[in-house]
Write a structure and sequence with these properties.
single chain; 54 residues; mainly alpha; 1 helix; 0% strand; elongated
């Protein structure tokens, strides 16, 4: 498990590499695919039946 100092060191290293341009720039055309809205549609073909005994 990482300690707070390890996490800080990782963050600082990331910021340093980003400043130096070691990470590739993000293409504007790919941003529309970065986060897709997820939709779930469940179609139930069965009807609800309630049974009772009186």
């Amino acid at each position: 498990m990482q300690t707070g100092e390890d996490k800080l060191e990782i963050l600082l290293k990331f910021l340093k590499y980003t400043k130096e341009g070691k990470y590739a720039p993000i293409e504007e055309s790919s941003l529309s695919y970065a986060r897709l809205k997820e939709e779930t549609h469940m179609e139930m073909c069965e009807e609800d039946y309630y049974y009772g005994v009186s």
